Amino acid sequence: MSTDTAVSTRTSTRSLLSARGLHVTFPGRRGAPPARAVDGVDLDIGAGEIVALVGESGCGKTTLARSLLGLVRPTSGTISFDGKPLAYSSGALKAYRKRAQLVLQDPSGSLNPRHTVYDAVAEGLRIHGYAGDEREAVAGALARAGLRPPERFFLRYPHELSGGQRQRVVIAGALVLEPELIVADEPVASLDASVRGEILALLLRLRDELGLSALVVTHDLGLAWNIADRVAVMYLGRVVETGPVESVLTAPQHPYTQALLSVLPESGSAPVVLTGEPPDPSRIPSGCRFHARCQVLASGAAAAVADLCRGESLPVLDGGGARAVACHWVTREPTG
Questions:
Q1: Which of 1, 52, 67, 153 could pair covalently with 228 via S-S, beta carbons 3.0-4.6 A apart?
Q2: pTM of the model
Q3: Based on the domain organization, do 234 and 294 belong to the same domain?
């Protein structure tokens, strides 16, 4: 885990990836209202910084991650990389994807079972017309991903590897293009507990050795605790709490973050069971989007701001490194 000082140093560096006012809306099916999967997000990822994007299934975090990579075009809002707006022509996206790479959660599904490890890692080089020594580049990427000696893996097929080795091959396939940013979607969700720590340690080492930035998408706050410099907690299309990971996870302010943390074994508190319906991006409620399931509002502790919770929308949180929370109960003094 990074110290507060280290976090402060990293988050003060230049912003590598920046999103402002991002919305992604999908048409509803059979006359249903449109689904607002991402409903107003500002987010920055600094050079050499690891940001964890956390939230339960259906909150919009994977859609947000894919839009940041140019895989899903936003309905509105802007995305900038290294200070330049993201363009959506085929040539511009191809160039961008050399600098920003996706690592998926299921290495078995990411790797073609008919391709050797060498071909799997070399695929990106061939797509981008790499003019250097392909064999040397593939060997270097495999070595950086922890598969040594790399030549021993060249002619192996995915079914001949362990789950952890397959995930390392997927990471090597991203590293071979020497990207500046990796977006890892649940990078250890399909791995055994004994291997998870190895992959997380690898991502941290890559950040330290290569200056690599990363957005790690996860539902696991324990993972965020172990790897991230900063965390953004997402609920129903919007970030509801953000800040340095130690600050947010040791003293969560938003009731949703508190509920997510309560189920961790080391939390020391009784698990919070959320009531109400799971998030539905086609039916975002008025006011605070969490109010229908909020345990604080249900307990009566937030009675003084209940009308605000149910009727007054909250602003989009700043995307930078400052601690911020979107909650009437936290941000307004109770009256009466």
A1: 52
A2: 0.92
A3: no
